[in-house]
Amino acid sequence: MSAGIKSNGAPDLAMLRMDDGAVAAAMFTTNLFAAAPVQISRDHLHNSRGHANVLILNSGCANAATGPHGYADAQAIGDSVAQECGCAPDAVLMNSTGIIGKRLPLANIAKCIAPLSQSCVDGNAEPFARAMMTTDTRLKMSTRLVAAAPHGAGNASVQNVKNTTNPAQIRVTGVAKGAGMIHPNMATMIAVITTDAALEPHELDAMLRVAVEQSFHRISIDGDTSTNDSVFAFATAQRGVAADHGELQRAFCEVARDLARMIVCDGEGFTRAFEVRVRGAASAADALDVARTAATSLLVRCAITGGDPNWGRLLAAAGRSGAKVDPERVSLRVGDVVLFQDGQPAITKKEIAAAEFAKSNVIVEFNLGLGEHEDFFISSGMTEEYVKLNSEYST
Predict the structure, then answer these.
(1) pLDDT in the model for residue 394
(2) Which of helix, strand or coil describes residue 52?
């Protein structure tokens, strides 16, 4: 619902209730100016030893860099939610997203907590996802179903479907917000991944960390991270059947990757997505370094924006990445078009390369020819609209 945090009256307050309790895990921003709700959620998650009953989020105001008053505001909201939902204060997790340095309208939010709690509806994540949005232009939601593993057998399968009432299937559903200040080690995004599987706190935490490393830590829109970035995960054990942990992990990863790609494709001023895939690296770190350096290069991203087949910028990025790179062994292609190999340019017509750079999803692939390690990184073009939006964001 709207608590009047956003000036346009759009929904800006969301609640997720798990009345029977849930195992909880989260990963938070590494920014030293972590917002008050992030600090409180970290403490609550630690104190509860990985359990929660409620998650409350607001958009339109980050409640970051607001000093002791902002911290007290967040605590007051958490205490009020706990009282309304009949749980311990440590069972409430929270976060905020929006402009840094402004305090929340505490009185407005306080009036909304009871009706918000009472209006929670089973099985409908869309209003929750919509209330998280700031500069987002579209909802970001994803679901996978994992077949139950009979008697612990490891033959479960993952399906990409929207709805089911099959009690033998376990659901993994994720929602997210994010369109700017996106970069690894958390970004200006909030994501929530839920499952009705039964997991122990350490199992859910490990599953979340693997999924985040393969998704949200492989995207960038502008190289910035923020003060409120968080990914939450909850496991309610409501389904009452066992899941193969390998298949459940795969579902978590797929949902997280879906959400990560949605964030990039909704980036502020977005024109086209850009994925750098690296194979043949001497080490895992080298593969990631080359992929990340090329995908986050401002010059490369400007070329992507203009559909300009200036592949020399890609090679230059790989060469300065700090990874082990042998120019005589590197091959570079975009789509199916080879651009560079055997230490020299490939014979390729410029218009054919330009057509690949002009696609809505540009796939660049390096083969370093030095080993068996691989990785990827996803980014987007750098557009005039992005600069315009962020030069006027607070005004």
Answers:
(1) 65
(2) strand
> What pLDDT is recorded for position 184?
52
Q: Confidence class of residue 365 from pLDDT cuts 50, 70 and 90?
A: very high
Burial 181-196 (b: 16+ CB within 10 A, else e): bbbbebbbbbbbbbbb
Annotate 194-260 with DSSP letters as a single string.
EESS---HHHHHHHHHHHHHTTGGGB-SSS---SS-EEEEEE---S-S-B-HHHHHHHHHHHHHHHH
Same domain, 257 and 373: no
- Residues with catalytic roles: 188
Domain ranges, residue 338: 273-391
Q: What are phi and psi of 5, to 5 degrees?
A: -75, -45
The conformation of residue 347, written as its DSSP 8-state character, comes to -
Residue 120 contacts by C-beta under 8 Å, 6 or more apart in sequence? 15, 16, 17
Neighbouring CB atoms inside 10 A of 20's CB total 9
Phi/psi for 373 (5° steps) reads: -90, 150
Strand partners, 173: 143, 194
Burial of 16 (0-12, 13-18, 19+ CB in 10 A): buried
At residue 241, the pLDDT reads 76
Whether 292 is in a domain gets the answer: yes
Amino acid in position 355: A
